[in-house]
Amino acid sequence: MSDRFSAWVSTADAVRATTKKLEKMALLGAYLGRLEDADLVIAARLFAGAPFSRKDERVLSVGWSALADVLLERSGKSDADMSASYQRHADLGDVAFELVGDSPPDGEPLGLVDVETSFTEMAAVRGTSAKRDVLRSVMRRATAGEARYITKVIAGETRIGLREGLLEDAIARAFARDRAAVARANMLTGDIGDAALRAKHGSLEEPTLTHFAPIGMMLATPVLDLAEVARRFPPPYVVDDKYDGVRAQVHKAGDRVELYSRTLDRVTKRYPELHDALLAIPGSYVLDAEILAFESDRAVPFTRFQTRLGRKDVSGELRTRLPASLVVFDILEREGRSLLDVPLAERLGILRTLPIAPPLRLALQRELNDRDEPLVAALEREFVAARDRGNEGLMVKDPRSPYRPGRRGMEWLKVKRALRTLDAVVTAVEWGHGKRKGVLSDYTFAVRDGDRLRNVGKAYSGLTDKEIAEMTEHFLATTIKDLGRLRIVRPDTVIEVAFDQMQESARHDSGYAMRFPRIVRLRPDKPVSEIDTLDTVREIARTVAGEHAKDQGAPSGEGEDVP
Ligand code: AMP
Question: Does the C-beta of 299 come closer than 6 Å to ligand 1?
Answer without folding.
Answer: no
